[in-house]
Design goal:
The chain folds into 4 domains: about 5-220, Rossmann fold, CATH 3.40.50.1000; about 235-325 and about 520-550, NAD(P)-binding Rossmann-like Domain (Rossmann fold, 3-Layer(aba) Sandwich); about 330-515, NAD(P)-binding Rossmann-like Domain (Rossmann fold); about 555-630, Alpha-Beta Plaits, CATH 3.30.70. About 35% of the residues lie in helices and about 20% in strands. The strands form 5 sheets. The protein has a 7-stranded parallel beta sheet, sandwiched between helices. A 6-stranded parallel beta sheet has the order 3-2-1-6-7-8. The protein has a 5-stranded parallel beta sheet with strand order 10-9-11-12-13. Helix 2 runs antiparallel to helix 3 (about 35-50), helix 3 packs antiparallel against helix 4 (about 55-65) and helix 5 (about 75-80) packs parallel to helix 8. The longest helix has 21 residues, at about 520-540. It is elongated, with a radius of gyration of 32 Å. Bound molecules: 1,4-dihydronicotinamide adenine dinucleotide (NAI) and 2-oxo-3-(phosphonooxy)propanoic acid. The site of 1,4-dihydronicotinamide adenine dinucleotide has 30 residues, from helix 17 and helix 19.
Length: about 625
């Protein structure tokens, strides 16, 4: 017969996110001018006791003296604590109920507030070990029951000795006194619980870390509320992705690492090991080789619009979803283009440079309004179309050329060929995407086809334009000016120099790929992309993925969701359904979408299933990835 298992769980900062006495102070010291400094002293006493640096009993006495609390504060405190139960504890109520005979709350806090909270989660009242308050006749809290071993130094050890549990004892807590139980030989394992606080002195001693209760349950093969502990999902964010994204992923419970610049293929091959979610911007290349080094990758987030830097097919074949932010920086690029069109038309960059060295050059020569001038937009996608609207609002006449049929906005006129557009436009602005076929679509011929004295802008991708041809056209005077934001080679970080033949040419605005670099755009992107990825991880939704078949799924309720990604060859769906039939699984809903390379099948099944089902699903021929959600 297997030995019994006992779980000793701490209360403050473990079962709940907070230290209850700090919260009590918030209530009892309300209106006290010294409140902040007293609370600080209370906090320091708590931290010092929890880190094992001072006498616990002495600290507790001092804290209660400082708090000047009254029993009337207790119902309010319980209300506050109710909302502060740790997320993973909240999630795993079923485990706490199912194992209630074996779960003990052992705390140096007070039963008066612990009992009403933990019993709501199925903890048995007789399994709660904690201190009790001493009150005076007026209900003031003046101390604690000094007979209780938990009020003493090494109190938890003394209590465990009294309990004399026979079986495996697991301790889960954030404090040094929790660790001491294991040190005294009274527990088999101590798990430092770091979901709410992480204490260095405790971590240093702990053999096991539990960033959540899920992780503890996962490691010990106990029933969990979710299919996989979120803290096992590691996120790598490159290229200065906005901190909002870091916050969003951390709030979800993921482990996040950030790196300011882009990584080379070689560096990324090394860093990608064990990464589940990779976040990049326009500079990092996610190649087939990188994917071959990825062992846990589920999703790549392009925290920008362009995805040409990612091998989308290789991702698809590896079952890796790719998401981007298709609209978040659109307006920023357009505003920059508008500003540059006007600046170039008036020769302002050169005039400003001259002023900085003391030259006053007041003249109207070569300076024009943009009103009534013809703007040719190449690539009438989201950016091109938005530029069209704003340019018309300034009185420009808009022409556009796109390789696919597009909705004509306002009075914009469609050109059937690029050449037609080039021959008409006074300004040509490039807004095509960075697909490989667009390499060097602008070269000597295209510049030659433009009007004499035209102005050229490229805020799309660097490889789209032959720089030498552009330089020639500017030097020869064919072009009157240019604005270039993107380059065939861009520095990976701000520490690398920028080298280009375009440097030093008159009436040329050079910018370091900042079309989308505004606060608004970066915050929008940092909100958008993590939500798409987390939705995919939590529910299987691939809506708006740039490489996967898009499925928008209903919310998962009282069901298991089987997520199967396979090569798109005939017969796989039939095989999946045979497996389900063989395992007598009741299908509640099934969703399938395929594209050229993969099939994506989601099957919601009723709760009862056998482990064999998981093995059989993984064994279906042509399976790329299989996972299960509940
Ligand atoms: N400078 C910067 O910081 C930024 C640059 N970008 C670049 O701008 C590009 C465009 O962005 P969106 O408008 O949002 O993309 P989009 O996909 O909505 O539009 C691109 C359009 O270009 C068209 N197109 C592609 N190749 C073409 C060609 N050879 N000739 C004519 N039309 C062609 C497509 O059919 C599509 O309509 C992105 O792919 C990205 O590379 C995007 C954001 C910021
Ligand atoms: O959104 C895009 O495609 C961009 O080019 C912007 O790239 P970035 O995020 O500034 O590296």
């Amino acid at each position: 017969m297997s030995k019994d298992k006992y779980f000793i769980i701490d209360f403050d900062s473990t079962f709940t996110k907070v230290e209850a006495l700090d919260e009590l102070g918030e209530l009892s010291l309300e209106g006290d001018p010294e409140k902040e400094s007293v609370l600080q002293q209370v906090k320091e006493l708590t931290d010092s006791a929890m880190a094992g640096q001072s006498s616990f009993a002495e600290g507790l006495r001092k804290r209660l003296d400082l708090l000047k609390a009254h029993q009337k504060h207790l119902p309010q405190l319980i209300n506050v604590l109710q909302d502060k139960v740790s997320q993973s504890v909240r999630r795993n109520k079923e485990f706490l109920k199912e194992y209630s005979d074996q779960i003990f709350i052992v705390s140096s806090g007070f039963k008066e507030f612990i009992t009403p909270i933990v019993t709501q989660y199925g903890i048995k009242e007789e399994n709660i070990y904690a201190n009790t308050f001493r009150l005076d006749d007026n209900g003031n809290i003046i101390g604690f029951d000094e007979e209780n071993v938990l009020s003493l130094d090494k109190g938890k050890i003394k209590l465990l000795e009294q309990l004399a549990l026979t079986g495996d004892v697991y301790v889960i807590g954030d404090g040094y006194t929790d660790y001491e139980i294991k040190e005294a030989g009274l527990a088999n394992k101590f798990y430092a619980f770091t979901e709410n606080v992480s204490r260095d002195s405790v971590i240093a001693k702990a053999e096991h870390i539990a960033p959540s209760l899920d992780e503890f349950l996962y490691q010990n093969k106990l029933p969990m509320a979710i299919s996989y502990p979120k803290n096992r999902i590691s996120v790598l964010l490159l290229e200065n992705i906005h901190p909002k994204a870091v916050e969003m992923f951390r709030n979800e419970g993921y482990q996040v690492e950030t790196i300011p610049g882009a990584l080379s293929e070689e560096e990324l091959c090394e860093k990608i090991q064990n990464v589940s979610i990779l976040g990049i911007r326009s500079k990092t290349h996610v190649t087939r080789k990188v994917l071959e080094h990825a062992n846990r990758l589920m999703s790549v987030g392009a925290f920008c619009i362009g995805t040409n830097q990612i091998d989308l097919d290789a991702c698809l074949e590896a079952g890796v979803t790719v998401f981007n932010a298709p609209y978040s920086n659109t307006r920023s690029v357009v505003e920059m283009a508008i500003g540059e069109i006007i600046m170039l038309s008036r020769g302002i960059v050169d005039k400003s440079s001259k002023m900085h060295v003391g030259n006053w050059d007041k003249s109207a020569a070569g300076s024009f309004e943009v009103r009534d001038k013809k703007l040719g937009i190449v690539g009438y996608g989201n950016i091109g179309a938005q530029l069209s609207v704003l340019a018309e609002a300034m009185g420009m006449v808009v022409y556009y050329y796109d390789v696919v049929e597009k909705l004509q906005l306002g009075n914009a006129r469609k050109c059937d060929t690029l050449r037609e557009l080039l021959e008409k436009a006074d300004f040509v602005s490039l807004h095509v995407d960075g697909r490989p076929e667009n390499k060097n679509i602008f070269g000597a011929q295209e510049f030659a086809a433009m009007k004499d004295g035209a102005i050229f802008l490229n805020l799309s991708r660097g490889h789209v334009v032959e720089i030498e041809a552009l330089v020639e056209s500017l030097k020869s005077g064919k072009l009157r000016g240019a604005a270039v934001d993107v380059f065939p080679h861009e520095p990976a970080t701000n520490n690398e120099p920028f080298v280009s033949e375009l440097r030093g040419l008159p009436n040329v605005i050079l910018t370091p790929h900042i079309g989308g670099s505004t606060s608004e755009a970066q915050v929008n992107i940092a909100n958008f992309v993590p939500n798409r990825i987390m939705d995919y991880i939590n529910s299987g939704n691939t809506y708006q993925s740039v490489n996967f078949p898009n499925i928008q799924l209903p919310e998962l309720k009282n069901a298991h969701r089987l997520i199967h990604i396979h090569e798109n060859v005939p017969g796989v769906l039939a095989d999946i359904n045979n497996v389900l039939a063989k395992n007598q699984v009741n299908i509640l809903g099934q969703y399938l979408k395929t594209n050229e390379h993969v099939g994506y099948v989601i099957t919601d099944v009723n709760k009862k299933y056998d482990k064999q089902l998981v093995n059989d699903m993984r064994g279906v021929a042509h399976t790329i990835k299989f996972r299960m959600l509940y």
